[in-house]
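Hey, resending since the last one bounced:
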Amino acid sequence: MDVQHLSAPSRASSGVPRAAARSGSGVVHANTRHTSQYTVVGNHLTQHRELTLVAIGLAAHIQSLPAGARIGIKCLADRFPESEARIAAALRELEAHGYLERTRERLPNGRIVTHTVSYNQPEPSRPARAPMPGPPRPAPQVRRPKPTAPRPATADVHPLPAEAEPAPERAPAPQPRRVAPPLPRPRTQDPARHRVAAALLADLRRDDPRLLLAERDVHRLAPAVAAWLERGAAPDAVRAALAANLPEQPRHPAALLGHRLTALIPPPLPPAPEVVRPDPFQTCEDCDRAFRAPAPGRCRDCRPGLTGAA
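The structure tokens again:
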């Protein structure tokens, strides 16, 4: 008869400590073992006391990338919602603490390239390098205490003249944000013309696959195309103006078309000149001769007043 082991668990553990689950305070880890598509990151990085949270997350992202991936500031700004200034500051933090090393090199053709090395474990023996310089910052304002009034001088004491206080430096004024002009709109609402404009925008991808627009962009740009059609522009002329000389890889096709619809809109057609038509031909009631007059009657020779005057 076997000996019973009373200390053995009666069922498999769920992986979550019961005490922590019952207390409800603090984090509880429910971990899953990774067998592929994972990156090993040290706690010296994830729990760093001097790095900001943006720098820690950026370092973890860089360590997960394959060799040769581009990690320029503009590439990272397109990938993440942070601004270029915050990403540049995080890269300088990683350089200062030994997680990143960037060097610039001038190629024989004159082009300057940046070589980047990412370290998952900073080496204490490697000398720290100063981070690459960022954009210049305005000098801080220097405030000096105002000089106190000099005490009255005695016969043997002569006070020194007070040093002139320098004028405080002013911070550069913020640049006004550029606001895009509104899209043109037609003066009169014409449902048929609006349908033609929407069909023209949706059909641009047949001419160039790079002009594939979302449905909401088609509805937003259709009034601008209708304004072109209202001003006498033919649909083929509008199509040629929007699809001509496109960049190799347009990042925002809808924004590009909106700019062209606003900047290249033709002027309204001038009013058509009034055509003065001659009076119709009439037949004289006396001599049956044809003459021009606004209404039937007698010709010039058969009118009594004109004959007596002649």
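Residues 153-160 have pLDDT under 50 and may be disordered.

Sorry for the duplicate.
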